[in-house]
Each structure stands twice: as structure tokens, then as C-alpha cells.
Write a structure and sequence with these properties.
The protein has 292 residues and is α/β, with parallel strands linked by helices. The chain contains 13 helices and eight strands. It binds S-adenosylmethionine. The site of S-adenosylmethionine has 21 residues, from helix 1. S-adenosylmethionine binds next to helix 1.
């Protein structure tokens, strides 16, 4: 597909459609959920972050602007990466953010280099354990993975699964909460949990309003829709499916921490382990321990 106008809307797969539009937050909960998650993660200026499947770079650029950390975004779709690079320049963060075309199954990075790997709506389409293993490889020991994904609230009947795949592509496979936790634990992560779990709500307006604040999406949206009227019906079909079946879907931040390798763990000794164990306790227990 050329980087300009697509020839026929029907020929584009879901990712190509998103890339053509330049949508910045095509994940459950939209940009408000991203902001909530980044607050929970407490990303610091010293963190070196990978955004895997970064799309048009909205989250990565926001993170650089608000936290001042260094971040690399990768995506398999060259059109997404091209738009993400434009965004970084336009938003004045190209000294902090870099975007590259790459595949999450084979990341072009050394072992043990990132403090945080984040992803938003990508593993739902892929082999979860393999992707999480690759995330683990590039994370430093004690590094964190935080992956915002669609969750099934209950088993999806096969007719609805077919409709879902028609909307979002074959292979779209949201899991139940426990299954997401199993997948990330199978890849070797510890302290696994689902942060900020939520049901899909009837708050499409909030999400659309947030989307419409993104200059990249709105700058030529009118011309795009006029040139390809089919785009509206495709977006409406996807939104209609989610609205009709919202009771089946939720979302949350699939979270885990890469363990310290054993020799380092031994060097840390008992005191170090106690400190680490205390750090991983939920805040409420930490407060109880140190309240007196
Ligand atoms: C639903 S979009 C989400 C994009 C972005 N994270 C967001 O929230 O807006 C999924 C993205 O994953 C990318 N993707 C799919 N498979 C990939 C792979 N194997 N490696 C890297 N990126 C991939 C697609 O090109 C697309 O940009």
C-alpha cells in the first residue's frame, strides 16, 4: 500500500485503517485510560522506556513531554512510524523519543536494556507468551512490563467471536483476567497483577472527545472521510459491535516485574531481599508495617 491515499477502503486490514487515519489512542479506554495508567506506574525521568506497538506515537510523546524520560517506540507498520516521527518533531520531543519499524516478536535491542516496556492494544492480537518473553529479554532485572489490553468479562460465544474478528481482524483474542495473568507469569514475570481493571462503559463521547484533541488525527480527517466514505461505516461497525456487546468486555493494565537472576539475588542477601519484598507489597500493607 502506498503511503498516500489507499486505493480501496475494503482492502485495508484494521491496523492499516488505523495507520491511514493516524489515530493516536486505538486501545480500550482511549487516552484517559493511558493517563490513568501512567500515573499508576510513576514513570520517572531516569526510566528508559519502550512503547511496543506504538501506533502514531501519542502515548510515547506524551510520556516524554510530561515525564522527561527517554523512550523508543516501535511498530510493524511503516506508516504509523512515519506519523509518530512527525509527531515527535511537531511536539518538540524528538530529542527524547525515537521511533523505528520493528516486530515485537524480535525486538532489535540488546538484552536487559529497558526499565519499562509498555504496550497498548497489541498483544491481544498476538501470541501473548512469546511477546511477553521478548519483553522480558529486553528488560533489565526488576524492570516492569505494563500492557493495557482488552479483557473478557465472561466467555465469548462463537458467533460473537466471529463478529469481533470481522471488526478487528482474525486472531483478535482477548483473554479472561486469570488467563492474562497466566500468560505473563508463564513468560517468567513476577508480582503479576491487573492494574486499573475496568468494564467497557457507555462513555464513547469521553473517548471520542479525547481523540478529537489530537492534531494528527483531525488535521485532514474531513478530507479523508470525504475521499473515502466507507471509512465511517467501518468505524461505526466496530463501535456498534462494542456497544451491543459491552457486557463481555473490560480492560486493564497487565503488569509484571522481571525477576532478579539468582546469583544477583544471592549477592543481595537476606536484607536486600527483605527490602525488595517490602517494596513489592501493596501500599496499604506497607503503611501498616511502618505506621508505628
Ligand atoms: C490497535 S493498534 C494500537 C496502537 C497504539 N498502541 C495505540 O494504543 O494507539 C495496534 C498496533 O500494533 C502494531 N502491531 C501489530 N503487530 C505488530 C508486531 N508484530 N510488531 C510490532 N507492532 C505490531 C500495529 O501496526 C498497530 O499500530
Amino acid at each position: 500500500m502506498a503511503l498516500g491515499e489507499p486505493k480501496r477502503m475494503e482492502e485495508l486490514n484494521y491496523f492499516e485503517l488505523l495507520a491511514w487515519l493516524g489515530i493516536g489512542s486505538s486501545h480500550p479506554g482511549g487516552f484517559p485510560a493511558t493517563q490513568q495508567n501512567l500515573d499508576a506506574l510513576q514513570v520517572s525521568q531516569e526510566d528508559y522506556v519502550l512503547d511496543a506497538g506504538c501506533g502514531s506515537g501519542l502515548t510515547a510523546c506524551y510520556l516524554a513531554k510530561t515525564r522527561g524520560c527517554k523512550i523508543i517506540g516501535i511498530d510493524l507498520n511503516p506508516q504509523m512510524v512515519e506519523k509518530a516521527c512527525q509527531r515527535a518533531v511537531n511536539e518538540g520531543v524528538s530529542h527524547l523519543v525515537e521511533f523505528r519499524v520493528a516486530d515485537v516478536y524480535q525486538l532489535p535491542f540488546d538484552d536487559n536494556c529497558f526499565d519499562l516496556v509498555m504496550a497498548e492494544s497489541i498483544t491481544v492480537f498476538l501470541n501473548k507468551v512469546n511477546v511477553y518473553r521478548e519483553f522480558s529479554r529486553v528488560l533489565k532485572p526488576e524492570g516492569r512490563v505494563a500492557d493495557l489490553e482488552m479483557v473478557l468479562m465472561k466467555e465469548l460465544p462463537s458467533n460473537l467471536r466471529t463478529q469481533m474478528e470481522e471488526c478487528f481482524g482474525s486472531g483478535t483474542d482477548p483473554l479472561l483476567y486469570e488467563e492474562w495473568l497466566d500468560a505473563i507469569a508463564q513468560a517468567g514475570f513476577q508480582d503479576v497483577e491487573i492494574k486499573n481493571p475496568q468494564r467497557i462503559k457507555n462513555n464513547g463521547n469521553v473517548i471520542v472527545n479525547a481523540l478529537m484533541k489530537d492534531w494528527m488525527l483531525i488535521k485532514d480527517l474531513k478530507n479523508k472521510v470525504l475521499s473515502q466514505p466507507g471509512v465511517l461505516s467501518r468505524l461505526q461497525k466496530n463501535a456498534g459491535f462494542m456497544k451491543r456487546n459491552m457486557g463481555y468486555f473490560g480492560f486493564g493494565l497487565v503488569y509484571g516485574r522481571k525477576p532478579t537472576p539468582l546469583p544477583t539475588a544471592i549477592k543481595l542477601g537476606v536484607k536486600g531481599h527483605m527490602r525488595q519484598a517490602i517494596r513489592t507489597l501493596p501500599n496499604v500493607y506497607r503503611r501498616m508495617l511502618f505506621s508505628n
